[in-house]
Amino acid sequence: FNLARVIGPALGGIVFGLWGPAACFTINGISFVAVIAAYAVISIPAVHERQRETGILEEMKEGFRFVITRRSLLTLTFLAFAGTFLGMPLFTMLPVVAKKTFGLGAQGLSLFQADYGVGSVIGAIFVASSSYAVKKGKIALLMQLLFAFCLVFFGLSRNLASSVIIAFVAGACIVGVVSLYSSLVQLMVTDAMRGRVMSIFMLAFRGGMPLGNLVAGYVAQRWSISIALAVNGAVLAAVALIFILKGTDLDS
């Protein structure tokens, strides 16, 4: 997945430069034929649904109660929401930053996206190599703090080389944070509750993206992109610092 974020923008920039946007969309559409063909040949064994003892609504309530009554799970869910609500506007606003701040076209945007993708791959490798680390929660909080600083510096940067480096570090941090948080959540729950708890976690994680983009978009239009990203980064840094200074244990 993260490797595709490197190869895709790089190839897209080349195709855009040679043949224009129509060719990009056409080739991208055709590429889905391979995905559909792969799904068609996958054989999935039948899953026997367990007998329900309670209704769906009651099971949903049980899942929310399970998360709310366990401080570490609730904290991880909140941190995931804060990370996407405050952090994802960085990547959503990349096209505007590339064009308005640096005067770059589609190929320049591809540079940023591929650079972010390379950082994501490095972040994924780092998480895989730290699988035996004892304090994964502390590592995740420190990476979220570093990501917050990247938000601030990227918003204020007017130097292309510096911004490319910051985007690389941000890509590594956000993938590391998300991977570590989701791993910690799954390690804390029983098999019976895992599906419901992960659904709540993903609701917070995914739900933060559109809401954060909406707010950041308003701030960027009302004032500027720099202010939107810098404020988001400052708030996210404050959130991470609070949990770090409190010595919050996210591993149990």
> What class do helices, strands and sheet pairing give?
mainly alpha
Number of individual domains: 1
Instruction: Output the number of helix runs.
Output: 11
**CATH architecture classification name:** Up-down Bundle
How much strand?
under 5%
Unreliable segments (pLDDT under 50, ≥5 consecutive)?
A: none
Radius of gyration (CA) equals 20 Å
CATH superfamily: MFS general substrate transporter like domains
Number of strands: 0
Q: What sort of overall outline do the alpha carbons produce when their principal axes are compared?
A: globular
Mean pLDDT score, rounded?
Answer: 85
Keywords:
11 helices; Growth Hormone, Chain: A; globular; mainly alpha; 252 residues
Write a structural description:
It is a single chain. Helices cover 83% and strands 0% of the residues. The protein has 252 residues and is mostly helical. Helix 7 runs parallel beside helix 9. The longest helix is centred in the C-terminal third of the chain and has 32 residues, at 191-222. The radius of gyration is 20 Å and the shape is globular.
Task: Give the structure's gist in a few sentences.
This protein has 252 residues and is mostly helical. 83% of the residues lie in helices and 0% in strands.
List the helices and strands and how they pair.
Blueprint: H1 2-19, H2 21-41, H3 56-68, H4 71-87, H5 89-92, H6 94-101, H7 106-129, H8 136-156, H9 160-188, H10 191-222, H11 225-245
